[in-house]
Amino acid sequence: MPDLPPPETLDYVRASARFLNLPLDEERIARVAVHLERTRHMVADLQALPLDVDVEPAEIYKPAPFPPGSDS
Predict the structure, then answer these.
(1) CB 34 within 8 A of CB 5
(2) Which of 55, 58, 41, 42 is nearest to 6 (CA)?
(3) HSE on the CB side for 26, CA within 13 Å?
(4) What is the Cα–Cα distance from 65 to 57, expressed in whole angstroms?
(5) Is 12 left (phi over 0), alpha (psi -120 to 50) or beta?
(6) What does the alpha-carbon distance between residue 5 and residue 30 come to, in Å, rounded to a whole number?
(7) Of 14, 27, 32, 33, which sits most exposed with the smallest number of CB within 10 A?
(8) 33 backbone φψ class: left, alpha, beta (φ>0; ψ -120 to 50)
(9) Where does the source fall among the domains of life (predicted)?
């Protein structure tokens, strides 16, 4: 495997797999951990960018109205 993930990430993947009742062998756990680490690094890079709120504003949640005649 080209990238060796940190032991903490491997432990996290193992614990998550157990919690979700996913039967993962050690090879698959390592592959998932590698992808998780890559994602973590991409997020860190994006969070380091100095972006203002108006660059990409979050959409405001507006629940849909209940249909007419609904008892709710």
Answers:
(1) yes
(2) 41
(3) 3
(4) 24
(5) alpha
(6) 7
(7) 27
(8) alpha
(9) Bacteria
CA dihedral 15, 18, 24, 25 (to 10 degrees): 70
Task: Report pLDDT digits (tens) over 29-61.
Answer: 999 999 999 999 999 998 898 878 777 777 777
CA distance 65 to 20: 35
pTM, 2 dp: 0.66
Distances (CA, A) of 40 to 7, 36, 55, 56: 15, 6, 22, 21
Mean pLDDT of 4-17: 96
* Residue 1: band (very low, low, confident or very high) from pLDDT cuts 50, 70, 90: very low
Q: What is the largest CA-CA distance in the chain?
A: 60
